[in-house]
Write a sequence for this structure.
């Protein structure tokens, strides 16, 4: 569904056998990518996948009951 030259972002596990977490370009499944919104720079977009997935994993690790409330402090940091 992407077109040639379209700006996309994704995340790569740095421990995968193929490597690729710190390279300029690599080949990944299309399902691993999403379009970069026009209002974001590539530098801004690059921060979203890791921070978002880290937050999601942290919340999942808490095993909270449905409807539970979580207070997030330190929201000025990279993950907050």
């Amino acid at each position: 569904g992407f077109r040639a030259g379209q700006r996309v972002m994704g995340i790569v596990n740095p421990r995968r056998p193929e490597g690729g977490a710190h390279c300029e370009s690599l080949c990944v499944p299309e399902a691993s990518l999403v379009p970069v919104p026009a209002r974001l720079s590539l530098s801004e977009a690059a921060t979203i996948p890791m921070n978002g997935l880290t937050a999601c994993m942290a919340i999942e690790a808490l095993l909270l009951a449905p409807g539970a409330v979580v207070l997030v402090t330190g929201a000025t940091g990279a993950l907050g």
